[in-house]
TrEMBL record:
Pfam families associated with the record: NAD_kinase, NAD_kinase_C
The protein's name: NAD kinase
Protein's organism: Aliiroseovarius salicola
Transmembrane annotation, as ranges: none
Organism domain of life: Bacteria
Organism lineage string: Bacteria, Pseudomonadati, Pseudomonadota, Alphaproteobacteria, Rhodobacterales
Amino acid sequence: MSQRIAFLASEAQVAQVAREELVARYGNVPPEKADVIVALGGDGFMLQTLHETQELAAPVYGMNCGTVGFLMNEYNLDGLIDRLIAAEEEVINPLSMTAVDEEGTTHEALAINEVSLLRAGPQAAKLQISVDGRVRLEELVCDGALLCTPAGSTAYNYSAHGPILPIGSDVLALTAMAAFRPRRWRGALLPKNATVRFDVLQPEKRPVMADADSRQVQNVVSVEIRSDAEISHRILFDPGHGLEERLIREQFV
């Protein structure tokens, strides 16, 4: 079975060398003509590739040439066609962020892992949190807060002591970073179809920035987030090494 493959690589030298070797052995086509896209790099490059190719039909198969590689498969020059044929597919819907800054400008971005709000000054941020139009937390004093997908639950969310979510769950995790008030608030699990809104209190005194998969907006006054069911990212994994297995394994290390 022939496979038309588009090889994309990060700027790292190891990824560029890997791409040259793979192209020499398997050939290469433009992404828009590919049956599958192979991304060479780390998780950051994988996210970048998913964003840049989201309008294309081809799934993305990552091979780790970076550091973490949670979304990646092991790199190996040999047997790629057989691995692609046997690969298992995971489908992920991204988060859609709509942020408004102090000047009233609206910024939109998509996030596969998480949307986070972080204090941008010396004082803690003050955030009001609403879910589906209802205020659920009048004031959260913290270094920041984030909303993540199951795919992103082992990234920044897990470092902030948020829960790991099974990949097939229709749930989002809302997690605070260094919550000061309420001190014992540990976050919340929300339905995937929930719309979450953060309103920044005292934005002039306590500036806040928003980040959607490294797409940053400075001096936000409000951020609204929802899961975008109209966009689906197709990711391929070697059998037995998919996101479900990785999410479980991560909890026992």
